Amino acid sequence: MGVRHRGRLLAVTVAVLAVASAQARPLNLFNAMRDTPITRFSSADVDLMTQTVQRALDSGPDGVAVTWENPRGTSGGSVTPGKDPQDRANCRTARIENRHRSLQNAGSYLFCRSKGQPKGAWQVIELLPR
């Protein structure tokens, strides 16, 4: 895996973990992440997942899953966008489900576009209850 892709994987993982860190002790958080699909993803998996998240949040209908699959590997998943509970125009929720071989994980997140960010620059704001 190249340095650029490792950096992207780290950025995606840190963004998702940062919102959860306030809800878990550090050791529990590490143990919970150790055997999750994203820690085993290739750079192609990360690219496919990231593109799917962007596409689903940009134009996916609420409640309709957008799937991704790496044809060269054993990873895949889905992103199901939804409406922001506070009805903000620049925010959406997403249920993200990922798998790598026998590992599976899912979570729901709130994403928003920051002011001044280009269209499509979604940021994870918080981890939502299941």
TrEMBL record:
Region (Disordered): 60-88
Signal peptide boundaries: 1-24
Domain of life: Bacteria
Keyword terms of this UniProt record: Signal
Protein name: Surface antigen domain-containing protein
Native source species: Variovorax ginsengisoli
